[in-house]
Structure formats: structure tokens, C-alpha cells
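Hi everyone,

Forwarding the result from last night's run.
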Amino acid sequence: MTEISARDRRAARGTSSLAAQVLELVASGKASSRAELAAQLGAAASTISLTVGQLVERGLVAEEGTHSSTGGRPRKALRLGGTDEFAVAADLGGSHVRVGVVLPGGGRAEVSTVPFDIGDGPEAALNRLAATLEELADRRGRPLLRGVGLSLPGPVDVESGTVVLPSRMPGWNRFPVTAWLEERFGVPAGVDNDANCMAMGEQSVRPAAHRQSIMVKIGSAIGSGIIVDGRLYRGATGVAGDITHSRIDGAADIPCSCGNTGCLETVASGAALVRILRERGADVTRPEDVVRLARDADPEATRAVRRAGDHLGRVLAANVNFFNPDAVYLGGLLSTLEPFVAAVRSQLYESCHPLVTEHLTIERALLGADAGLVGAGQFALQRALARALREVGTDLGPDRFPAPPRTV
């Protein structure tokens, strides 16, 4: 993350393997002090101290605060990243974008929402967005910028850094978003779909004990991201968590954007609720209108929202029974409605095995509208960290790093 000199590279070669192990333990939350690292790695305290000191010097690890102690000298807590470095990030919607500064420990600053038209295509839209992010970076201190992150409302091929067959992003198919950002900013870029970014962001502020979770985003469309052992799980081809195209009985033969019929998206998404309520004579044109009616206790809207939550809960129940996560987090616009959340929760408790739900957390995302933004920034910082490690002879790819645990 910070610039690494030739001297640093030579000094690190002998300890690069140990440095990699230290970084993984700190990133996973399994160790957060020098003493814990020494105990888990079976290394001498002096060796661990030297390695941690080198990582701190290069800005790969930071020490801050102290652990509570039952006696003896208080221990400093370790976390990934330097104290002043940052990423700029954006979470794209159809007509607006959430932008802000993301810090290594999962914190955020200068967050705001600005108008954005994704239908303008990638060149025009990204140029305007980049100008906004550059202003953020300049105010924060451009020399300390380590990455740029982007959360996109469509499928992303992370390896190529492109959007693949997006249904609501005209002109974006196969556009090299990651390469475009890296050329513009000169730092590593982290680009992923919105559900994965939300899962990553939410994991960064959750207890380290919650290492298996499902993050569900319910807005105009539906998506989910899966955290396994503290890391984002992408699956064999990068589309793990695509529950939106699960076929359900209640959807009948309603056509879906994927080309099939009867998908969850056609009856439980924000776009589906707009269609359903318009068919019943309601004056709605976008999901925000549905939320407004439901909050005003409109009977038709409330029934439709509850039904949507029930549909989602049925699909989630099969996944929860199979995966047995610690938690299910709900994000996106519809998650702000209590009838929707209650319907999902009720269906999970009704349809899942009691051992699966005994200690299961089911609740809204703590980060709310900022989950995708924080996740995108964390992906960018991880890529910067992976690049810095390669420079000292340790090839530890960004997907090896779990989301950083919550700093207490």
C-alpha cells in the first residue's frame, strides 16, 4: 500500500512466508495482537515483533488502541492497512450513485448521494463519476489514495473486470471497467456486483464470530452475496448467490429479465411490486412509491410487500438449510419495511430445521445504504495490499483476504 523500496524487498524475502501468515491471521480476526500471533504460529515473540514491525513500517498493518487486559501491560490491537491511507468508492444505482471515502478498518467518510444515469453508457457515466471521486481524493490527500472501488447493479466477471450481460445497464456489456478505472486513477481498482460488495461491507462491521453469512439485497432487483469463513464466496464461475432466478410456484408464467418465466424476481423484487400494484390500480412508477405507500399503511401495498417477503423467505429457507450460516442480513430498499422483514423472518423460522435457526441472526444490514460502498472500497484496498505483497515477493491474491473484522 505504501511505496516499497528495493531495500524493503531484499529485507522481506526471508520473512515473506511468515508475513503472509501474519496478514491472513490479522485479516481473518483470528489474531489481533503480537502475542496471539506468536502463540498461533509457534514463532518466537522477537520474530513476530520484527515481522509485524516491518509490515507496520510499510503500511500493510496498523496498530491502534489496546486490548482489554486482566493484568500486565496492555496489548495494542492489530488491523490491516495504514492509519491514513484510503480508497474512494461508489455504489451505482440506475439514477443515483453513493460515493465516499473508505478506510482500511471499514470506516467511511464524506459519503453522499449524487445524480447518476447509468443508461448514458460506460464512457460518459464513468467520466462524470471519476471527476466526483477525484474531488474526494484530492480533498482527503491524493498521495494517500490506494485504490478505487465500484459496486455495480449487474453481473461482473471479476477476472476480466467487465460487466457481463447486464439487464439494466445498456451499453455496458463487456466494457473493461476495472482497466478503465486503473488507467484513470493509477491505483488498483476493485469492481464487483452490488450484492457481493454489500456482503463484503457488512462483514467488515460484524463480530468476528459471524464468519458464515448470506447478504440479500432487495431493491429494484434481488441479489445475494455469500461469506464463507470470513471470505466472499464466488463459486466456480463467479455467480454464487444468484437466488433471483430461482423458480417458485407463486410466480406462475410471468416472464423474467433472464428470458425464463416464474423466477423469484418476478414476484418479490421492487420492480415486481411496482407492476403488481399498478395492475391493482395504484399510482406507482418506481419502488420508492411502493415503500411510501407501505409506510402509510396502504392495505394493498402492505399485503403485496408481505407476500414478496414470504416468497423471498421460501427461497432463502432452502439456502439456509443447505448452508447453515451464522446470519442472514437484509439490505436494499425493501429491507427498510418491517412487514417485509417480518415475513422473511417468519418464513425462515417456519421452513428451516430448528438446529439451523437456533442461533441464526436475521436482521437488516447495520451499514444500511452504505454497505455496497464500504464493500467496494474494501475490495480496492485488498487489491492494493495484494499488489504490495507481490512487490516484496509474497503472492497472496486479494480473494485470500477475509473482510477485516470490526474494530472494537
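The first helix runs from residue 6 to 12.

Cheers,
N.
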